[in-house]
Amino acid sequence: MNLSTTYLGLKLRSPVVIGASPFCDNIALAGQLEEAGASALVMHSLFEEQIELEQRALFHHLETPAESNPEAVSYFPRYDEYQLTPDTYVRKLERLKNALSIPVIASLNGRLPGGWVDYARQLESAGADAIELNTYQLATDPDTSGNFIETDIMEIVRSVIATVKIPVSVKLSPFHTSLAQFASTLDQQGAAGLVLFNRFYQPDFDIDDLEVVPRLKLSNSSELLLRLRWLSILSPHLKGSLACSGGVHTAEDLIKAVLAGANAVQVVSLPLEFGPRSIITLLDGLVEWMNDHDYRSIDQMRGALNMKHCPNPSAHERANYIKVLQSWKV
Amino acid sequence: MKQTSSADPLFSTLDANEAVASVAYRLNELIAIYPITPSSAMAESCDEWAAGGKPNLWGQVPRVVQMQSEGGVAGAIHGGLLGGALTTTFTCSQGLLLMIPNLYKIAGELLPLTIHVSARAIAAQGLSIFGDHQDVMACRATGCAMLCSNNGQEAHDFALIAHAASYKGHLPFIHFFDGFRTSHEVSKISMLSNDDLTAIIDEKSISAFRARGMTPDKPTLHGTAQNPDVYFQGRESVNRFYTFLPGTVQEIMQRFGELTGRRYHLFDYYGHPEADRVVVAMGSSIETLRETSEWLNASGEKTGVIAVRLFLPFHVKAFLAALPETVQAIAVLDRTKEPGSIGEPLFLNVLAALSEGRSPLAGSPRVVGGRYGLGSKEFTPGMAKAAFDNISRYEPLNHFTLGIIDDVTGTSIGYDASFDLEPADVRRCVFVGLGADGTVGANKNSIKIIGEQTDNYAQGYFVYDSKKSGSVTTSHLRFGPRPIRAPYLITQAEFVACSQFSFVGKQDVLGYAKPGATILLNSPYSVADTWAKLPREWQAVLIEKKLRLFVIDATAVAQASGMGRRTNTVLQTCFFALSGVLPQDEAITQIKKAIAKTYGRKGDTIVKMNYAAVDAALAGMQKVVLPATPDTDAVVTPPPVYPGASVFVEQVTARLLANDGDNLPVSAMPADGCWPTGTTRFEKRNLALEIPAWDSSLCIQCNKCVLVCPHAAIRAKFYEPAALAGAPETFQSTDFKSKDFPGNKYTLQVAPEDCTGCTLCVQVCPAKDKSNPRHKAIDMAPQPPLVAAERANWDFFLALPEPDRTRIDLSTVKNTQFLTPLLEFSGACSGCGETPYLKLLTQLYGDRLIMANATGCSSIYGGNLPTTPYCKNNDGRGPAWANSLFEDNAEFGLGLRLAADQRALNARTLLKLLAPMLDQVFANSILDAPQGTEAEIADQRARVATLRVKLHAIDTPDAQRLALIADDLVKKTVWIIGGDGWAYDIGYGGLDHVLASGANVKILVLDTEVYSNTGGQSSKSSPIGAVAKFASGGKGTAKKDLALIASQYGHVYVAKVALGAKDGQTVQAFREAEAYDGPALIIAYSHCIAHGYNLSQGLTQQKLAVDTGYWPLFRYDPRLAVQGQTPFKLDSAPPKTALAQFTSGETRFGILKNIDPARAELLAGKAQEQIKTHYALYQQLAAPTPATPAPAKEPATPIS
């Protein structure tokens, strides 16, 4: 049985990749995931504004209380000998590279064009096997057009691709006006792959305290369907790789994603909830299904149910929507 | 720490502490440390260098070990030396005194050691962190040699000379220099290279020392107990080492001079070769004396100065050789005080030397001694001249004092305060700033730029006021072509900058300016408006002195650059532009280089925003053209008023507040160090830009805001509606929501000029507008528009009747907050986590409270002059507060308890004796009165009042005696207060003993998990994974569970509390502790500025500390065990969330991820694991078990 796949030009031993998550913060855990069969690890995003905020906070907290009292002219060691920031992320990447044999993909979320390029260069130097650009932007300004946002993203992708030699993927939002066209353009501009999709941070309400509170909700299999559709739609058209991110919790989900055209699936919620050994279960289920259905390789499976190959392409389209709606009996 | 070779000396601009540490670090293998101001910085540098892997002269990284006290340090260095390791330490003041027993041992055993001491005053009538020689002089008899440095360069050089002489001479050295004036003065120093060190250190001596190290391979025995037959001879056996040591020191000085060109002698004479008058001194005053002597000599006089380098062993011949033969009068200046002695030590040594040395001088010179400079009192050229003038007289004053007005014993010599002899080529600049606005840091950078990028010599000295934060800082910068010998503050500056417009009219900024000086003022107003806003007296001074006034809205420039309110870079750029010390472009280049060096490691963002501030600075600076006369309509600053103040406040405190304390005479001082309480209310600091504004329609009257306010600046009262008569128009009032007091009104009132704007009250407020939850019952609102009205409201509020304590149910948090706080408006940090606990304590028991306060933050904001925050209630009662020392507080508190008990016993004995004459039933009612509740206390006070009346009618000595002490029949409670540095480390032994004693004392530990007062050094309370000074690489071991340890006694009431997490449990713990008839220990989680986050989030962090299991809450009540119940009550739920939720918000944890991610991860993992096991242990202890032993009926050492 050949579970290997090619994602972003990287030869992976299986399609199961650990998606952007805090797993990269824990070397031991990352090692257990590798042992369990994960074929690559995506680090959580390096947020440019987070770096800035952290620098400002550190500056503020180290400097503000200083030099105001004769007994305590400061409250922390001077750290002349240390680099305090911003290379924490880079050093984390180096440590992962030293500890793991699977590819490590750095993830980057910039704010300004210069920042993307600077940090991408640093990540490449630190040994990243690829860079995943997380173009998450919450367009809250009513004066910002969709076209402006997409042009902005395109420019960032172009500049990063031009800067580094390692493959660059783009993690997309499902809320683009013409996702197929936008994905195709990214593909043409040299993106080595697309990741479908970003799961947005969605704050919740605390109705007792009347507060808006951060809430991290893990994904579930119901989120897969959106990904399956767009993997099926995009996979016949793109040169680059596709990763399914969000909604893969069972072997069945994994199999569906590959059948829809994914080169890799990114899992986060599953190992967060059930630990590294859940990857073994996932892969065992995949192998069992492949055996049962006489598949010899992932390549053989990939895209078997996408728009190009599935027996009923209209199921992916609007006609299916009407049909499904009408199937409900009140 | 830079090193270079003497062939190519590198000048560095740094303070003496760092300069000394750079030598000590390189010459030692074992460095035992403990924090104490102003020497802590030497230890901190060594710890940082060791954590960074910096090697010493022999290629090893010295082992830096923090001890629990200076006494512990002394033991460790003694062991280290006997073990054969090159060992050193740094200390001063009480810390040095704690080392004295071991210093005798170390000297007695001929062990080579150098202790570097930034010499500091000793706590006597009051504590002083500032400089003089009282500490080192207290060590004269130990057998340590004493070498004194007079400036930063000498401190750097003598650090080497002392170590070298110690190794070669086999004796310990105390190398000292003036605390603050030298230790903290930044100056241009020629740095000693490793080659220099190697050239001076005698390797053979070191080998010989190592060969003496204890080892079972060559067994020896030290520390015998000697009998009358040999002890005396043994003490005399070391004489020859003292005889030879001066020669050794001089020989090393000789070699040092040949190597570096800087030549020193045991005594250095400066002055006229045929001087008739000579002043002998040591320390930084030598610089001033030399300059003054030169000025006098240039005027035709014949004077000279002897700088004493090696004070002990005092080499008589060398001293006499240094004295010109022509000398007729000598003044010896001691920077110390030895009450009752014939004279101070240097004076006596000089007298003895002249006598013993059979001076060949024609006739014996007159010798007088005097004291100066105690507690960093300024020593100015005017004072130096007065010393010379004194010995010009036919009958000079002996045992004189300089720099004060002694109107009691007439010791003081007058001096000309305006006498100024600074050369014209020395540029003098003063910067007045606000603590934390970056002014001091920027000036340190400026002085480095001038010192290292120009040919100028440079000097920087920085003065802070007495507050923990929000203080006024004054930076004194000098630079010029020659070494600067002016260790005193600038009074006539050519350039004066003021970073805060709020200082206008309040601080005497223009007083620093000499005529024609340049003034740079940060002003939010236009040029025209700035002038109009200046008070008339400022306008007049500007015009009269012909000052050049420049203004810039530095705050706006800083904010636009992302710097917030830190105006330092902007004003620094303007300073360079106006001063012309460097060409403008070069200055900007150098400023940017300094920025990159200072902030480069903190990230590009910080560098870039500083650059932006530099680039934008000059464009915003404008010159103000002064009119010929002040504006006729300019405001006149009214003199401060202190309504209701005592005569003492008006005559003493007011002058301290007006920065005129230096001119207070001796007669104004309470001779026993006992000062009145309740004077912070006169200070009116007006620190807050925003203050809480109350919306009574939303308020649920929970009083949580009152509880958490660190400064007692927001208070609640309920009262009869009639009390509102005459209320100011804007005074707010609403119906009091209370079944117990129907019909009453309620008011929540802010003290607008005392609030520090920390926002904790707003953070804790749970009452939100239902339609707009952003609006709460209290929101922060700009202070200036509110201050006038709220000032009137505050005064009216204070006049409202206080609640009847006997009618309030104090079991609820809300009700406790109607009690008058007797700790108000302290100088604690804005948002301080400690003071709410102390305030609560004073609300509950302040009227019968005796407090023993360990040295630390709580003693500084509790007792640092000029004003005192503990105060009295309307009956004139309030906390009686005292600070003894750092290390002895538990024992001190026990003494206070025992004294209170004895006084009560005395009163009771007399009452019993007089009972037949009074009324036996009445007497018994007093003797047997329960005093557990407010009502019972009030009843007892009423009975005591009656007793006084009755005693008045009895004309016997016993009756008169009882009348004097009748108040002792009312219960007193003794609370012992301190931080974790005291409780976990230096005072732990005493604390343990007092707990074990069973005495009825209550101990409150304000646990900030670091030595907050001295700048955040690690204590045994510091948690694993946290970075602190002395734990630069992150603390690797777990926090000591002091509460659990104390609970193991079984007879100690113990509680672990966190006000921000569960205020009800805190109040309950305080009440249970007080009610318990035995020792009680409360450990209170106190968020702190040293944790590295915005303290407005302090309560949130406290809650997270509890929710994550980092700070589990419990109470251990021995009374429950007696009742057969489990005494251990776990008051917090199992951890709800990961520890990282708590730690990620605090720099002390987060910074380790930056410097050592692997270690951060490791320690974070351990910390999380420890929480699990710790909580499991607590759960076990809290589980009901019939096997729980009842506490012993009698304590181990019955006391009361």
Task: Describe the protein in words.
The complex is a heterodimer of chains A (330) and B (1200). With 330 residues, chain A is α/β, with parallel strands linked by helices. Chain A has one domain: TIM Barrel, CATH 3.20.20. Chain A has helices at residues 27-36, 48-63, 88-99, 113-125, 146-163, 179-188, 224-234, 251-260, 269-274, 277-292, 298-301, 318-327, and strands at 5-7, 10-12, 16-21, 40-47, 104-109, 130-134, 168-172, 193-196, 204-206, 211-213, 241-245, 264-267. An 8-stranded parallel β-barrel of chain A has the order 3-4-5-6-7-8-11-12, surrounded by 8 helices. Chain A has a two-stranded antiparallel ribbon with strand order 1-2. Chain A starts with a strand and ends with a helix. The model of chain A has no long low-confidence stretch (mean pLDDT 87). Chain B is an alpha/beta fold and 1200 residues long. In chain B, 38% of the residues lie in helices and 16% in strands. A 9-stranded mixed sheet of chain B has the order 1-8-18-19-17-20-21-22-23, sandwiched between helices. In chain B, a hairpin with a 5-residue loop joins strand 33 (1010-1011) and strand 34 (1017-1018). Classes of the chains: A alpha/beta (330), B alpha/beta (1200). The interface between A and B is large, with 44 and 69 residues.
